[in-house]
Amino acid sequence: MSMCADGRKYPLTVLQLCIANVLVTFVSSQTCSVVDPNVLPSTSEMTVFSSPGYNAGTGTYSADMDCFWLIDSGAADLKLLIFMTYDTSCPGDKIFIYDGNANTDTALANGVCGTPSAPTPYSTTQRYARVEMVSDSNVEKSGFQIDVIAAKDYSGTGCTATQSITATSSYQMLTSPNFPDKYPSNSNCRWALTSPDGYLEIDVIVSDVEDDDPTSCDYDKYLIYDGANKCDNNNIKMICSEYPKVTSYSNNSTESTVTVTLESDGSVNRRGFLLRFRSVSTATTTTPTTTTVTTAFISAISSTTARTTNGQLLEMNMELLVGVVFGSLLLISFTIITVVVVVKKVSMPLEKTITPVQPYRPRPQPPEVQPRPRRSNGSTQRPSLPNGHKTQAAGIGTTRIVSAW
Ligand SMILES: *[C@@H]1O[C@H](CO)[C@@H](O)[C@H](O)[C@H]1NC(C)=O
Ligand SMILES: *[C@@H]1O[C@H](CO)[C@@H](O)[C@H](O)[C@H]1NC(C)=O
């Protein structure tokens, strides 16, 4: 064993690679900077990034690469849930994921290589993850794709007794227990989400439950019921699929309460679910001003329109009425002004209406505005990413760490 510059221990063959990279730093930094080295994931959708040249799994990485990326959830209480898809050539091309921002932190993925059949989940215990990839000079494959979301446990007390949560017009989160880590065995959780305004919007953001026949879900499952009861006839969604099979699901309730449950058996636990919900009003949304004005108009002018039960139609008629009345007022005013002006003009002597022409004087030109020089941020093009995912924005407000070898 020998030591590289960064203090990690390498076997002799890797040590040679390490030295080579130190000597040709600019080459490796160019290779690595294809992907922004800092990733700030979202809390409400998966952020995707991939190794240089990945090209949705059809490309290849470079030989002799040694790169790292830092993922930062953005807050101390937000952890990271990572699903990694990869295809590397063993044993020389390896990926490491550290639970922290240094390669001395615990390795969640300790030099994995090969081609797993499904994305592998990892979760951190704090805000950072450091991802490293090394390759040798032999066969190159496509590399890795990481789907990552910043997350925390929003399960509350729903796994000890039914927890009632009142929804607001802003989104609130709900997760399985321990999220983004695994839900426990023999979980039996229940949440009653209630809308004070009419009904609820439910958006499932992440689903990762032990895979099973989706029509029966005999092992682990979570369910969404339209109503306060937990019956087959109001069950609107049952999920028992591993990520990314049910990546998103959205629906609105017809009842003012939605019941969410999670049931797990004694073995094979996954990451569970993350969903968000908010209260949505059944009434047509109008601004308070419009409502006041139009209501007054309705009672004063048109009793027929006011009796309309359809909110949308009512609003349209009210707007039409306001338009007609204001339009008429404007037209009357305009006519009066025109008549007054015409009468005045006719009564004036002709020569007084002719104004003398001013001699032409060129206006002074304003000084030419120089375009502001654009600050180069040194970022380069990123590989294209699949639809339905948020692509990583260049690390806003974070220190950019460029290759350090
Ligand atoms: C649910 O309701 C909201 C607000 O009315 C709407 O924006 C959204 O599209 C609806 N979602 C579905 C899945 O119908
Ligand atoms: C959406 O919810 C309604 C009840 O609110 C249900 O009847 C319908 O099947 C649901 N749609 C989907 C796609 O789950």
TrEMBL record:
Organism name: Mizuhopecten yessoensis (Japanese scallop)
Stretches assigned to the CUB domain: 32-151, 159-280
Region of interest (Disordered), residue spans: 356-405
SUPFAM superfamilies noted in UniProt: Spermadhesin, CUB domain (SSF49854)
PANTHER family: OVOCHYMASE-RELATED (PTHR24251)
Biased composition (Pro residues): 359-370
Extent of the signal sequence: 1-29
Protein name: Embryonic protein UVS.2
Gene3D superfamilies registered for this protein in UniProt: Spermadhesin, CUB domain (2.60.120.290)
Transmembrane segments: 320-343
Key words of the record: Disulfide bond, Membrane, Repeat, Signal, Transmembrane, Transmembrane helix
